[in-house]
Amino acid sequence: MDTSTTATIDGERTANGKPALRADARRNREAVLAAARERFGECGLDCQMDDIARTAGVGVGTVYRHFPTKEDLIAALVADRFERLAERAEQALLERDPWQAFCELIRHSAAVTIRDRALSEFISWHPELGQHEAVRSGLADLTAQLMANAQRVGGMREDAVVEDVPTLICALGAVTAGASGKMPELNWERYVEIMLDGLRAPGVNKLPPPRAHIPR
Amino acid sequence: MDTSTTATIDGERTANGKPALRADARRNREAVLAAARERFGECGLDCQMDDIARTAGVGVGTVYRHFPTKEDLIAALVADRFERLAERAEQALLERDPWQAFCELIRHSAAVTIRDRALSEFISWHPELGQHEAVRSGLADLTAQLMANAQRVGGMREDAVVEDVPTLICALGAVTAGASGKMPELNWERYVEIMLDGLRAPGVNKLPPPRAHIPR
DNA sequence: CACTATACGGAATGCCCATTCCGGTTGCAA
DNA sequence: TTGCAACCGGAATGGGCATTCCGTATAGTG
Can you say whether the dihedral through the CA atoms of B22, B27, B28, B29 is positive or negative? Predict the structure, then answer.
């Protein structure tokens, strides 16, 4: 991607304390990450390490030098996804209408999750996410604030809680993870709206006559 | 269960055409089925055949004589579940208020699915259910009728379709399949209500002030 | 009671992966 | 250009699990 030969070299060791990576190593690492993103996204968590290695154009051994375990590789990918979402959440906090901001965040999270089958599965199998990098990267806290705001303004059900979000996204992921391939596109967007409708404060008008957005 | 020694014996071959099962065989078959229901329910689809055999108190060989494949065993279990649901749906059609009847059916389906981890997983991974035994046992048709009624009376969103049901149940299953064990009870019932709220016709009053049924 | 078609148990087999190992390469500092 | 530590590739290893095989046991029949 970037041809600059000079990168993060600071003489001998990189920021943290590890000896800097050799150029080819760095390149391979990226390749692996990219391949993993691609393959996991398509095949889900049980995609094989060999497959990823092949896609990345390296040997399995190389994959393992960078990520000692399949799980580690997955963790790296997931952490990244969460961080990006956290950034997005941060922006959402600045919006005018908190309820709308929340909706947007959910829609976006849903979209991301839908496209990455591995992410869906990961979330499905780790409902204790709260303790994970989700919290680390602050996503949870940010979401909580956003929700509190939405509730204060009266847009959101009073009994909605942060845990509801990963749960709902997870549900969505499941729906599509299964459908993946068959049922092309399954317009999941419709389901997102149904969920949001479910979280909306009672009394507040629901969507205008549900968009005649009929499935299939 | 039933001690009557005389069962489906009609001399030499049973109804369909297969030679009748020997008494011990019939007994074992039941044991396997029961064990499978139990173990699959707890461990989900990747529970092992050996485990089931042990639980049933028989050898693996025996399991395989009755069900040539793990998949066959699962299919048998699932088909059974669907049939029971279909019966339930039939009853629902007789109720006064179609919307309420629908809600009850969903709540019941959800409960069943929640308790059977394998069922959740199965549904999650087979969104093309429509073609499966679901249809065979008529569940799909019955549900469709029920929904049509609910819509006619104005209780249900106009754009809701039959496919929404397995999808939503599946979503629910995913949520709890993951949570299974950790997050004891996760009161999924709350989620069912959120979903139903989402399917309710706009304008119709939502639940009375959301029951202060706070999670955890 | 004897006989045999059915059933049974569970060790053995075969396949699918993740992970490990090690002889051969290659950046890159001097 | 040289030397070697850091890297590579990919064959080999090991564990898990569905499925098969076969010698033994036993309903059910005459």
Answer: positive
Q: Find the Å distance, CA of residue A18 to C1' of nucleotide C25.
A: 23
CA distance A28 to chain B (A): 34
B215 to chain A: closest CA residue: A161
Chain A residues inside the 8 Å CB shell of B197: 197-198
Query: Is the CB of residue B186 less than 8 Å from the CB of residue A185?
Result: no
Please report how many Cα atoms fall inside a 13 Å half-sphere around the Cα of residue B3, on the Cβ side.
0
Q: What is the pLDDT of residues B123-154, one digit of tens each?
A: 887 756 655 655 667 899 999 999 999 999 99
Residue B208 confidence (pLDDT): 47
Residue B16 — φ and ψ, nearest 5°? -65, -45
Query: Is the pLDDT score of B34 beyond 60?
Result: yes
Which chain B residues are closer than 8 Å to A127 by Cβ? Answer: 175, 178-179, 182-183, 186
A134 pLDDT above the threshold of 90 = no
What's CA B173's distance to the chain center, in Å?
11
DSSP annotation of A156 reads B
**A124–chain B Cβ distance below 8 A for any pair:** yes
B123 at A interface, C-beta within 8 A: yes
Longest dimension (CA), chain B: 65
How far is it, in rounded angstroms, from Cα A42 to Cα A117?
6
Tokens for A204, please give them.
Answer: 């507040």
Q: Which helix (H) or strand (E) holds A179?
A: helix A164-179
* DSSP annotation string for B50-106: HHHHHHHTS-HHHHHHH-SSHHHHHHHHHHHHHHHHHHHHHHHTTSS-HHHHHHHHH
The gap between B62 CA and C7 C1' (Å) is: 8
A126 touches chain B (CB under 8 A): yes
Instruction: Point out the residue among B171, B178, B205 whose CB comes nearest to the CB of A172.
Output: B171
